[in-house]
Amino acid sequence: MSKLLIIGAGGHGKVIADCAEASSQYSDIAFLDDTFPERGSNLNWPIIDKSSQWKCYQDEYDFALAIGNNKARLAMYRALSSSSARLPNIIHPSAVISKHVSLGAGNVIFANAVINPGSQIGNACIINTAATIDHDCLLADAVHISPGVHLAGIVSVAKASWFGVGSCSVQNIEIAENTQVGAGAAVTQSTTANGLYVGVPAKRIKDID
Known about the structure:
mainly beta, 24 strands
């Protein structure tokens, strides 16, 4: 069995560790976090070093990224990938993923998530608890689909975009790069880049970096 090292020991990291444990694919699960050595554990899992020390462990461990900020997660993914570190997909056994789905690397897919046929998931994405992605969707790198989000069919989500908890989209639209969709919002038309969208129907209320 493999060993898994999770970069980031916050709440999101706990869920990744629990997901990996449920998969029964790892004999050892540990964390890297910048709170080391002040913190020595995250629940039952040890924190063994600072995040910056990941290169010391890449021959021994697979890696998962528990970094909520999409741009920061993508930067870390690229750094690890360029060093030939192993970044498997961490998938909860209760997730339902069609065999006709294309998955990149370094993704986490949590309990009761559903991804339907024809969809393509990039790298370093988060498909959170009970989120559903219908047929023929395209998620670029470092997209975060929060708990309870529902994407209808043929939705294209560009790099580093984020759907907040309980939000949704209609079919046949494009979500531009670095879009943020607020909790509970319903996106009914395509978005423009670097915007925060809230409400039903979702409206752009401000620019974001």
